[in-house]
Amino acid sequence: MIIHDFTSQKSLLNQFISELRGVSIQKDRMRFRRNIERIGEVLSYELSKELHYANKKVKTPLGSKDVLVPNDELVLCSVLRAGLPLHQGVLNYFDKAENAFISAYRHHPDESDAFEVIVKYFASPSLDDKVLIITDPMLATGKTLENVLKALKDHGTPKSIHIISVIGSKEGIDYIKPIFPDTTHLWIATIDDDLNSRGYIVPGLGDAGDLSFGVKL
User: Fold this and answer.
1) How many domains does the chain fold into?
2) DSSP strands (E only) in the chain
3) Which of 74, 136, 157, 185 has its Cβ near the most Cβ atoms within 10 Å?
4) 136-161, pLDDT tens digit by residue?
């Protein structure tokens, strides 16, 4: 796996991350969602440097100009519901991408720390010979991405895979490395060291889905 970690780089991503983490700013759901969306935009720009390009002649009012434009077919797959703001940020830049959605949530039997990831809904176009971009804002244990990859296998073989995430744990990244192809790119704004007993990133930012859309039952 090729990891693009922006933790220590001087970037506006740091401002967006600091606001996402801040308990006082988190109370503003619209701002929280917008910051995730903006992170998706920045990481999409970085990802765009790895795509294939072709020359296109553009006619202007005064002549014509050759321009290099991306020519890959993209499929953007996001994990519901927390992935929706990140999905929108990526879609803002890759507006011609096809879209896929998958629901994946943690089930804690008897409220214990142990959990399993349950997938109940999945919709996707064919992935054959396309660039697959998976967005999941919190890469904690890596089990959600593992289940997403399993669900996608019946929809074709992409020519490349990119993962876009906001915050991840070292443990989660290590977990998915052998699961995804070696050529997979991970684009991540920042990486934290630890997980707590319930598999949440520490210090992290809390539950991205709840902070974006409200507490679920």
Assistant:
1) 1
2) 2-5, 53-60, 63-70, 74-80, 98-107, 116-123, 131-135, 138-139, 160-169, 185-192, 194-195, 201-202
3) 136
4) 999 999 998 998 999 899 899 999 99
